[in-house]
Amino acid sequence: MEQIGKIGMMVGRVSAGAELLHATPSAKRWENYFMDPRNDLKEIQATAKDGVYFVDFICYGDKVALYVICRVIAGRAGDCVMAMITIPCNVAIPGEELAYIIDKTKEELGKTQLDFKAFDQLCDTEYKLLTAPPYVNSSSFSRQQYAYQLYGRGTDYQLKEILSKNLFNPCYNGYKAVFLIDKASLDVMTPVEGVVELQQSQVGRYAVLKYPVGYRYKLTINGQAFTADYPAKLGDTVTITASRESFVAQSISVTINSQSEDPTSQLNAIKWKTIIKLSMFEVLDQEKGTPLKDIQVRIGDTEIKPEGTPVLESVLQNNPTVTIECKGYNTGTFFYNTLRENQQRGRKIKLTRAPKTYTYVVDNRLEEGRKITFAIEDARFDIKRSPLAYYEVEPSTLNSEKIYLRRRKQRLTKSQLYVILLISIVVFLLGGWAGWGLSGVIAKYQQRETVETYAVKTQSNDPARAEKSGSSTSDAEKEQADTKQKIKELLKNTLWSRSEFKEAGYENLYDALNGYDFTIVLAIYNSLGVDPDSVGKTWRSIIENMTEINAKGINVTRDPIGNAGAIDLIQYNNILKDILKAKPKPSTGGSSSKKDGAKNSPAKPVKPETPQKKEIGGLE
Questions:
Q1: Residues 396-441: pLDDT tens digits?
Q2: I want to staple 273 with a disulfide (CB 3.0 to 4.6 A). Which of 84, 248, 329, 544 is the partner?
Q3: d(CA 251, CA 313)
Q4: Residue 6 has pLDDT above 90, yes or no
């Protein structure tokens, strides 16, 4: 059912004070607003041809406009009769009809006898109630400033237009009362100094910005809470700000183009952005479980900053890929919905360590001053430990792009010292028999001492047989055994690489083979204690041929074939076979030795005896 309402009217007399004479039924609830207008009337200077004039002004109570009409008798400014028309803000009375009621009220006030029924009849019409009043002025009784607005010829408004369009007008707020003056009567009715004239541009046409009922988020308009319809003028532009928890506040500008502007569609079109902070990501080391710092996070193509980055809600709703990076770790990726689940359930994001490339430089002299450089890629590598046996890290280069390795300082093991001591004693004792004519025996032992001493010297120079600095004897012996095992494996190859023998600490074996120094080769080989059946067929043949060449005293003058860093054992063995097939050319120094001791000391595969004592100085 349609709701209806009425305007009301209070009629009174003012002399020594204001006296309420009559109130229509619809005005009784506003009786407390009935006033003494004498102070208000002092703001107007008027002269009247017939001694009587009317002063009209508007003031406001709570949700009601009070249109006051005073019939003043010239010379008796303190005495008047008055009518106060009450127009509730939600009563839709046409301006033209209200102007008619004002004219009729003035007629009734001009009569000698007031007819209260006539006033009742003027207020007996029912009007439709507005569900949303366009604007409601606040109460004006506590204010001090007065204003006036002209209407009629020469202005933009007639009275009926003011009553229809501007009765509840934001422009009227801030004033105790607004006098409405017909411009044609300014010659007999003039506001006193200090009363503000409202220009037409100030008055404008009132309008209302509708409050979007049902909108879920907090709104402000021009910085003030927006909880109900907002009064404005046509053409005004206002700023509405929507706020939402965990999202960036969004503002829109709305221009009032109609008397009932609705911003709902613009508010619904807002693209919300939520703040994503790095603190939302708890990233841990997969193995240690420790928090990782200095992480970088991207959601889609958007990089997240430590203080927070706004990300469109529409992007997050599509479950974008979240990428997490941390120096030294593999990149982690997952979908955004997984992130939300992790946060809700307290889960952590774990990253695995990424392989790192470490570049090393071996402090070893090569031709033309070049150095050996190699790289290692590993996820859990301890850079303080050398990746090469018998080398240690130069500490000052740990934080450099290239880490330098230097040779460890070696020292002889106890067993090596005992062997050297024993051999020295034997040599010393044998030396005492030199004058007794035992030259053959001496030559035999000199030959054996030469071979065994070289084997010991080779072991002492071999890093694989040296102890680590500060390590125990047992560690050194274990390291020795490991190195021996490695060289045994190398003997099975038919292609020797000098770098491999050097890495194992036996580059002297390679060099001796390359230089056809069979005595040294046999000495080192025999010191290893290798089972002949455990090495390759080619190497066994080479050992046998070397032993035979030494036994025959053949002097080999062939060119080395391994200067390029590799020796083909099959080719090498063929060379030995060719030497044996050729006519023997015994060496000068070796023939005498053979005469003395070769007959009594035939060559053996395991412990060969040479016809001559070979000097091996400079090998230590």
A1: 777 766 777 777 765 555 666 677 778 878 767 766 544 444 444 4
A2: 248
A3: 16
A4: yes
Task: Select from 64, 57, 78 the least CA-distant residue to 26.
Answer: 64
Write the DSSP symbol of residue 465: G
- Report the C-alpha gap between 67 and 75 in whole angstroms: 24
Angle in degrees, CA 481, 394, 416, rounded to 5: 30
Q: Is the pLDDT of residue 575 over 70?
A: yes
**What is the average per-residue pLDDT within 163-168?**
78
Give the tens place of pLDDT for each residue, 279-316.
888 899 888 889 998 898 999 888 999 888 999 988 88
Rounded CA gap, 579 and 557, in Å?
A: 10
In this structure, the answer to whether residues 337 and 384 fall within a common structural domain is no
Count CB neighbours of 134 within 10 A: 21
Among 133, 170, 161, CA closest to 5: 133
Which one of 327, 351, 375 terminates a domain?
351
pLDDT of residue 31: 94
* Domain presence at residue 482: yes
Is residue 222 predicted with pLDDT exceeding 90? no
Q: Where is the domain boundary, 351, 373, 388?
A: 351
107 secondary structure, DSSP code:
H
What is d(CA 519, CA 589) in angstroms, rounded to the nearest whole number? 15
255: which residues sit within 8 A by CB, 6+ positions away? 235, 236, 237, 261
Confidence of residue 443 (pLDDT cuts 50, 70, 90): very low
Q: Which SS3 state, helix, strand or coil, does residue 80 take?
A: strand
Domain count, the chain: 5
Q: Report d(CA 364, CA 405) in Å as an integer.
A: 9
Shared domain for 469 and 514, answered yes or no, is yes
pTM score, whole prediction? 0.43
Do 85 and 187 lie in one domain? The reply is yes
311 and 383 together in one domain: no
- What value does the mean pLDDT take over residues 214-237? 85
- Check: CB of residue 99 under 8 Å from CB of residue 134: no
Q: Which residue has the tokens 């070289």?
A: 454
Do 73 and 138 fall into the same domain?
A: yes
Is 264 found in the same domain as 371?
Answer: no
Strands 224-225 and 309-312: unpaired
pLDDT number for residue 218: 93
Instruction: Report yes or no on 444 lying in a domain.
Output: no
Q: What is the mean pLDDT of the chain?
A: 78
- Does residue 607 lie in a domain region? no
| In the predicted structure, residue 610 carries a pLDDT above the cut 60 | no
Q: Are 125 and 6 in contact (CB under 8 A)?
A: yes
Using DSSP bridges, classify how beta strands 206-209 and 260-261 pair: parallel, antiparallel or unpaired.
Answer: parallel
CATH of the domain at 333: 2.60.40
Return all residues near 575 (Cβ < 8 A) that are at least 6 apart.
Answer: 558, 561
% of the chain residues with pLDDT over 70: 75
378 and 287: one domain?
Answer: no
Which range of residues forms the domain containing residue 398?
356-407
435 found inside a domain: no
> 369 with 237, same domain?
no
Q: At what angle do helices 507-514 and 518-528 cross, to 10 degrees?
A: 150
Tens-digit pLDDT profile for residues 9-31: 999 999 888 999 999 999 999 99
